């Protein structure tokens, strides 16, 4: 075929890669998992390598979208604790874009906030937010909020409202995961998303269950027995 000289256009999807309900994850014995959680996990839903590839794609898309008309720093807001690995890998991959590209760049500054709402595998209706007090510098800045998972969407909807009070110029949200809830209740759609998953409670890659399982590389589905073993009593 004659070479027309036309380059194929590289398009990267900002919408999530959808994991169907029929996929229940990969068997554990194909992966190197820590011994201390071996009996508590059901399967590997998203292997570490796949997470990394998808984050690299999102970083490239974010770089291309946000460097336009943005000579000033993009404020990247890490939502701790669950978002720390996604945040760290996403920033690293945007930095790689900055190093590779000689035609354009995206300067960033990094901020951190901590939220807490989950007890056991249920969202409590109390959202604690720590670190909002020193964010006056957000005024007129472009903000990218980086979150691990959007489930009901209530945390992110509340957080966004809190950030709006500081009058940033723009707010965008990147979430590694959104959950396709059985009750279909989700009140927030992120601008950038890695994966949409079926309605399972997942752990690993910094996502926890009562502070356990953050120290697993892959995103895994928790077993019913794991849910029981690490349950805390709510007073
Ligand atoms: N796992 C961990 N944390 C979460 C989840 C989940 O499935 N949903 C909301 N927060
Ligand atoms: Mg989170």
UniProtKB/TrEMBL annotation:
Similarity field: Belongs to the purine/pyrimidine phosphoribosyltransferase family.
Name this protein carries in UniProt: Hypoxanthine phosphoribosyltransferase
Enzyme Commission designation: 2.4.2.8
UniProt keywords, alphabetically: Cytoplasm, Glycosyltransferase, Magnesium, Metal-binding, Nucleotide-binding, Purine salvage, Transferase
Reactions listed under catalytic activity: IMP + diphosphate = hypoxanthine + 5-phospho-alpha-D-ribose 1-diphosphate
UniProt pathway annotation: Purine metabolism; IMP biosynthesis via salvage pathway; IMP from hypoxanthine: step 1/1
Molecular function terms, GO-annotated: hypoxanthine phosphoribosyltransferase activity; magnesium ion binding; nucleotide binding
Cofactor(s) it depends on: Mg(2+)
Residue ranges of every copy of the Phosphoribosyltransferase domain listed in the record: 53-209
